[in-house]
Structures are given as C-alpha cells and as structure tokens.
Amino acid sequence: MYTKCPECKKTHTLTLPQLRASKGILRCRNCSVMFNALEYISETSDAYIAENLSSQHLPWDKPNEPDNTFWGLGVLLAILLLVVQIIYFEGYAFSQNSRFRPGLEKICHYFDCKLPAYKNPDEFAVLHGSFNPLPDHSYEFKAIITNQATFTQALPNITLNLLDYNGKRFTHRVFRPQDYLPEATAATELASGATTEIRLLIAAPKTGIGGYTFDITY
Fold first, then answer.
1. pLDDT at 13 (0 to 100)
2. Of 45, 111, 205, 214, which residue is most buried, by most CB within 10 angstroms?
3. Where are the alpha helices (DSSP H) in 60-195?
4. Does 102 share its domain with 126?
C-alpha cells in the first residue's frame, strides 16, 4: 500500500504494522509534515485516493453489524402490552360481540377459561305475556320468552311497568332472575333456542291498573 504527502506530494510505502503502530498518522520523510496516511491511501504508487476514508472499512476492520436481539425483544414486549391493554379495556365488549364470540369460546376451551355470560336482550323473543287479576285482588304476571341467540344467555331482568287508565306509567319494578325463578331452579342461564316461563304475583296497588308493559333488560 502507498500514501502520498499532501504537502510535498512525496509517495511513501505503507505496511499494516506501520499503520497500526502510528494509528494512521505519519511524518513525511521529505518535508517532515505530519498527515493522516489513511486519507491518501492507494494500492499503487502512481495514484492515490484523496478522500476521507472515515466512512470506509479497512481490510482489518471488523464490520459493525447491528444487534437486532434487543430490538426484536422490544417489539415483542410492545405487542404483548398492546394485547393486554385490549383485553383489559375491551375484553368484555369483544366477548359480547356475536362475530368474535365463537372464536373466543374456542380459545377459552383450549386454555380452560370461561367467558363472561352473553347478554343481548334484543335476542330474546316474547312468545306470550299476560297480566290478570286473581280472586284475592292481586295480579298474576306471566311471560314466556325464548333465547334466539346463537349462544347461551344469562337470564334477563324483567322490568314491569303498570299504567293508569290514561296509559301513563305510575309505577314499575325490576325483577331479577332470583325473583321469578322457582326456588328449586339453580340455573341462571338459558341455552340457545331454549324457552322459559316467568310467573310473578303482584299485590294490587292503590291506583287502578289500566294496563301494563314489560321490558327485558340487564
């Protein structure tokens, strides 16, 4: 290898041990100028490279290869954190979505976990409803509902509204499953396509009853 003094243009022979020992800084034997030999290094004595080699790799330099281990680990942790946040904040909403529910049930079956009970009052159909007076002046409310959802649903609440003779609601009450289920029934869910009967005894209010409505809610 060769280098050339930038001051007097004298060509000098270079060796690797010489470069290592001087760290690339040489003194010109002709004009005594100190210069960076690497900036003017050449493979031939009649030409030289007049450019800064700080951006080039010399034969004895070790290539700097980026270590992607920590980068990959960071990306993995970020993805896991995102999944945990989605499950924490949106997990219940996903479990109540009919599009995602089948896939989530398969995942839970694999990991032996349990999803929150499916609740969609719009997927209950009312097959029968009545509100009739009894001989003791109380009333009996009856309703038959069926679960039209693809999934088992939690039994709903029944909101019974009593109307006066002008059709205005003057009172209401929310009945939970434990209020209308028989005492011997321990089930709190209704399978897909299944039907259940609701029966409630209502004490006669002081206001005359002109009608009734009821809502299926949670």
1. 83
2. 214
3. 69-95, 101-111, 177-180
4. no
Identify any residues that bridge with 63 across adjacent strands, giving them in sequence order. none
Helices and strands, counts by H and E, the chain: 4, 13
Instruction: Note if the pTM is more than 0.70.
Output: no
Same domain, 127 and 211: yes
Helix axes 69-95, 101-111, angle to 10 degrees: 120
Our count of domains for the chain comes to 3
Residues paired with 214 in a beta bridge: 160
Q: Are residues 175 and 196 located together in one domain of the fold? A: yes
The answer as to whether 65 is a domain residue is no
In which band, very low, low, confident or very high, does the pLDDT at 145 lie, cut at 50, 70 and 90?
very high
Spatial contact of 151 and 192, defined as CB atoms under 8 Å apart = yes
CA-to-CA separations, 56 to 62, 64, 122, in angstroms, rounded: 11, 12, 71
What pLDDT, in 10s, does the model give residues 85-114? Answer: 766 667 788 889 989 899 888 888 888 888
Query: Two tokens at 52?
Result: 């800064």
